[in-house]
Amino acid sequence: MRAKLLVHGSLARCISSPQEIERLLSMGWLLAIPKPRTPMAAKMRSLRARRRAEGWLSLLLWLPPDQVANVKAALRPNESYADLLTRLVQEQSLIRKKPQVDKHN
């Protein structure tokens, strides 16, 4: 569960336990929305929420140095890494969909 920011008087705490959140809410604590740290933070938070709702998936991928050269060699001109990944997956699925030879014919 994602941590929630709860405030009471001059205190503010980030709580991730659902039981603790319910306990503090019953004691009069309030849920708060964190202030953006930069002018673009609110806009970026909104963009991430909209993309998640649309079904986008955020991936972080680390490649070892020896594999970076292979990936860069596979890139076509003006192709993004997302396009490369999609193309390679589609090509791999086409390879697996080759018709099987029927042994009985």
SSE diagram, text form:
Elements (H helix, E strand, L loop, with lengths): L3 E5 L2 E5 L2 H9 L3 E3 L8 H13 L11 H10 L6 H16 L9
Antiparallel strand pairs: 1-2, 1-3
Summarize the structure.
The chain is an alpha+beta fold. The protein has helices at residues 18-26, 41-53, 65-74, 81-96; strands at residues 4-8, 11-15, 30-32.
Structure, explained:
With 105 residues, the chain is α+β, with helices and mostly antiparallel strands. Among the domains are: 1-35, no CATH class; 65-96. Helices cover 46% and strands 12% of the residues. The protein is built from four helices and three strands. Strands 2-1-3 form a three-stranded antiparallel beta sheet, covered by helices on one side. It is elongated, with a radius of gyration of 24 Å. The model has no long low-confidence stretch (mean pLDDT 83).
Q: Helicity level, as a percent range? A: 40-55%
What does the radius of gyration come to?
Answer: 24 Å
Count every beta strand, where a strand is a DSSP E run of 2 or more residues. 3
What kind of sheet is the major sheet? 3 strands, antiparallel
What is the average per-residue confidence, as pLDDT, rounded to a whole number? 83
| Helix/strand order | EEHEHHH
* Widest beta sheet: strand line-up: 2-1-3
Strand content: 5-15%
Unreliable sequence segments: none
Structural class: alpha+beta
Quote the distance from N terminus to C terminus: 57 Å
Inertia-based shape: elongated
Give the helix tally. Answer: 4
